[in-house]
Amino acid sequence: FQSLDPPLALQRAVRLLNVPETVALAIEDDQLVLNGVASRQWLESVRGLLDRVPGFRMINIDRVKVDDSSRLRSIRHQLRAPETVQLELSYNTLFVTGTASAEWIKSLKQRCLSLFPDLNLKTTFHGDKLLSNEGTQLKILIQQLDGMSFYFSRGVTLTTAQQSSLEEKIDRLRKLVLAIDDVSTGVKFIVRGYTDGSGSVESNKALQLMRANYVKQFMLKAGISPASITVISGRNSVSVLQVNPALRRADIEIIADDVV
Questions:
Q1: Which among 49, 95, 141, 167 is least surrounded, fewest beta carbons within 10 Å?
Q2: Which of 66, 85, 105 is the last residue of a domain?
């Protein structure tokens, strides 16, 4: 015989359900109502016992909030997630945000499938992408180098000042190439040649392309793939009365829309 007396039924429920200290029980209109915080694992186990606790018309666990902190700690440890990565569990979905190395990000999906087959993975950061440390560095370099100019005195001869800073510019382009390789992203370059406008339209356009191709050679020397470089004339210059030496240049435009 099992007593249906409320106090005894309450004690029996605590024992049968193995209620954690973070969960409180109360009787409301013949219902056993649970309040508090518990692990998802405990809640799943309790759902299979709700009809085995006598003395109550029904058992309500809707007010118990899920505490995923314990499992999150385990997930973080198994994924070896860096401190710059935030993890959040919502039902069967694991949300991952923050910054990490490109290598860690690339292996994340396969590791989750292997270690946590019950979870869906959702990475969120700038258009559902994790931001890698390498991606951050690449973005900074692109901001610094986009619009880089090479100045000419005449023809395809660089100015004296430009020649003295040439190796430094090539070195910066090399760093950009290394950053691109780390992130494995598609970065495109457009090199535009310009002239001061003296002479015919045809001669100006030819010189613009010559200057752009001249700069392209430095880019190739830095290790940039020729397939990623497009050479064009800046504009069809027309003859002018006053020559502006600052227009004798070639500019590099960097296009990297998928860098986050």
A1: 167
A2: 66
**Could you tell me if 250 and 121 are in contact, meaning their C-beta atoms sit under 8 angstroms apart?**
no
Q: Please tell me the distance from the alpha carbon of residue 62 to that of residue 80, in angstroms, as a whole number.
A: 34
Q: In angstroms, what CA-CA distances link 206 with 51, 191, 235?
A: 86, 14, 11
End-to-end Cα separation, the chain, in angstroms:
67
* 178-198: pLDDT as tens digits: 777 656 567 889 999 999 888
Tell me which residue of 191, 190, 172 sits closest to 249, measured CA to CA: 191
Q: Give the global pTM.
A: 0.49
If we measure between CA atoms, which residue out of 181, 249, 188 comes closest to residue 215?
A: 249
The whole-angstrom distance between residue 89's C-alpha and the CA centroid of its chain comes to: 19
| Percentage of residues in the chain having pLDDT higher than 70 | 86
- Classified as helix, coil or strand, 190 is strand
Q: Which of 186, 187, 204 is nearest to 240 (CA)?
A: 204
Give the per-residue SS3 of 33-71: EEEEEECHHHHHHHHCCHHHCCCCCEEEEEEEEECCHHH
> What distance in Å separates the CA atoms of residue 188 and residue 183, rounded to the nearest whole number?
14
**Residues spanned by the domain of 62:** 6-66
pLDDT at position 43 over 80: yes
pLDDT reported for residue 1: 42
